[in-house]
Amino acid sequence: VLYLRAGNILSVIFRSAFFYLSHCRRFSYVVDQCNTHQFFTPFYVEQSKRIFLIHQLTREIWRIQAGWPLSFIGRVCETAWLRLHRKDFTVTVSQSTKDDLLAIGFDEERVAIVPNGIAHEAGSFDSLSAKDEPPYFVYMGRYARYKGIDDSIRALALLKHSFPRTRLVLLGKPDRDYIAGTLTSLCTSLSLSIGMEEGCDVFIKGFVDEDAKFDIIGRARALLFPSHREGWGIIVTEASVAGTPAIVYNSPGCRDAVDMGRAGYLCQSNSPETLAALMQASLCDEPSYQQMRRKAWDYARQFTYGKTLEEFERALAKLDGMR
């Protein structure tokens, strides 16, 4: 595997094109991996060699995450940029993203779903960690506005009326500006404490290693993931395989990761009130909670790198048949 790093966010596109055109006979396929940024391979790579890899569209994320005028430019241009690849053989990770692509003109026969895999191997269900008392919920991931950390905090405040000892643990590298500028003032307005001390209502645990991560999520009552859009939601699968069901918004990628509510709790309306209601349900109905916990664990076990490789090889075989 040869890694080449050159240029900046714009010049790397031209550097990549030049490199490919200088060595095009060496390559059987070119994978253009798009996460908002892409390499515009339809302009310089033969169609028979192109594979377009995309996890998610960004749609409302532009409005939530980016300021004016970038949010407007992104929302206006995204569909046009993606339609450049509508004739490419395309790989994505969820039915939600495939449906989004089909809606803008991609060919269903040329879009393959290759599921994400996780490295953590599932143990037996009986060996899973016991849940902590008093209970806590956990958020894991980046500090991005569209991920819904603020809604998780609002839901915690609502839940505390009935379960005053519950807490929220935040895992992931802290964004100190976002914490100071948004989350701290939100917690103050809701009469919640926030900080890096375990006794806080919102406990900022920060970045931890893999062993600690799975220990913390394994003892949590549920993972909160009210993101407005994902490709899949890897952290939902990681939590589930540790025996902790997720409570997610009914948004692309998140709904797929909980198998449309069969392997995790799916909000029917995306609001802190609905999130809090499902948090309370996970605490009040123990038989249903244990059943959901088992279903989430059982569903998550199938998402291995071995299966990802198998499905990608099947996609390549299909592409070979089309050439």
Using brief descriptors, characterize the structure shown.
42% helix, four-stranded parallel sheet, 323 residues, 11 strands, seven-stranded parallel sheet, alpha/beta, globular
Question: What does this protein look like?
Answer:
The chain is an alpha/beta fold and 323 residues long. Helices cover 42% and strands 13% of the residues. The chain has twelve helices and eleven strands. It is globular and about 65 Å long. The mean pLDDT is 95.
State the share of residues found in helices, binned by percent.
40-55%
Can you summarize the main beta sheet?
Answer: 7 strands, parallel
Which radius of gyration do the C-alpha atoms yield? 21 Å
Which structural class is indicated by helix and strand composition? alpha/beta
Calculate the mean pLDDT score and round it.
Answer: 95
Strand order of the largest sheet: 7-8-6-5-9-10-11
Kindly estimate the percentage of residues that lie in beta strands according to DSSP: 5-15%
Large-scale geometry: globular
Q: How many DSSP helices?
A: 12
The strand count comes to 11
Taking pLDDT < 50 over at least 5 consecutive residues as the criterion, the unreliable ranges are: none
- Report how far the terminal alpha carbons are from each other: 25 Å
Helix-strand pattern: HEEHHEHEEHEHEEHEHEHEHHH
